[in-house]
């Protein structure tokens, strides 16, 4: 029994340490069961409190606590698992009662020094356990500033978008404002170049620290995913509808954006088509598209003449990011956003469970004829 307890304890210690390293150190979307279980269980609690029947203001206030509390719960989960694992090791190595082994383990993990042993194997085990506790504490201390630094960088452009696209962000409003100030020709430099970099940074930070996806913006009406959808829609409308020369910078922004959303959707198991056809349906309807064109015409924006071709080209761009965008917006319970969180996408979003994890595969597209195929 003691040998079995020691082996089980060693396995629990090893798996917990690997979980901590994957969560804190590995700079990629490395999934691990313990972290996933902690976040899923806390999500169930917050989903119960923030049920869809409540006003969105209340739901946003409740859900704003989920990711921070989930992060703070992780160290407690690691501590419990480490204490249990080392209890098995202490009992298996040193003999004595299970109670004595638990007291030595807890004293060593929290570096209290209230329970110790003069036996060399047990003393060495206690020193090793205390060192692991200090190491994980140091990793956590460096982990939280990294998360909040990435959060602040993400929210800077999201906040700046309000003056350009309104709140919640709206692609038609954004294009109208740029037309009124005679700045349609500077969209590439003012918006798309910066947001192309933003998409790359968000992909890197949100895969390294997946909890970031669920950190909500300081204002209830803002969200990183609805802002991303607005910018991608502006780029798609500019490429397909506005009668100005084709811009490679705009097209690259769309490509960078949908690749980033695809990889986040892969990690969170949000279904999407990795190789959509330009003729595949999108969540935006033709009626909604035509109403948006009326808004642009009323603002004096020069549009192309063939509306059917404009619709076909817009769908050819939108289809690349449509399902990933809508699915992620539902997953993070984003506030109202035109053509993103207001779409009926329940079929795109899996229920969060213990199998909630990423899967392999990447998207590859080639620009052809005004579309991404």
Descriptive overview:
This protein has helices at 2-24, 33-49, 56-63, 66-94, 98-109, 120-160, 162-165, 171-180, 187-208, 224-240, 248-267, 286-298, 307-318, 322-331; strands spanning 367-368, 371-372. It is mainly alpha-helical and 373 residues long. Strand 1 and strand 2 (371-372) form a beta hairpin. Helix 6 (120-160) runs antiparallel to helix 9. It starts with a helix and ends with a strand. Residues 347-373 have low confidence and may be disordered.
Describe the protein's topology.
Elements (H helix, E strand, L loop, with lengths): L1 H23 L8 H17 L6 H8 L2 H29 L3 H12 L10 H41 L1 H4 L5 H10 L6 H22 L15 H17 L7 H20 L18 H13 L8 H12 L3 H10 L35 E2 L2 E2 L1
Question: TL;DR of this structure?
Answer:
By secondary structure, this protein is an all-alpha fold.
Give short descriptive properties of this protein.
single chain, 373 residues, mainly alpha, two-stranded antiparallel ribbon, 14 helices, 1% strand, disordered C terminus
Low-pLDDT windows of residues:
347-373
Can you write the helix and strand succession as a string?
Answer: HHHHHHHHHHHHHHEE
Question: Radius of gyration, rounded?
Answer: 25 Å
Report the mean per-residue pLDDT as an integer. Answer: 85
Major sheet summary line: 2 strands, antiparallel
Whole-Å distance between the termini? 61 Å
Large-scale geometry: elongated
Number of strands: 2
How many helices in DSSP terms? 14
What helical percentage do the residues reach?
55-70%
Placed side by side, the strands forming the largest sheet appear as: 1-2
Assign the structural class, choosing from mainly alpha, mainly beta, alpha/beta, alpha+beta, or little secondary structure: mainly alpha
Strand content range: under 5%
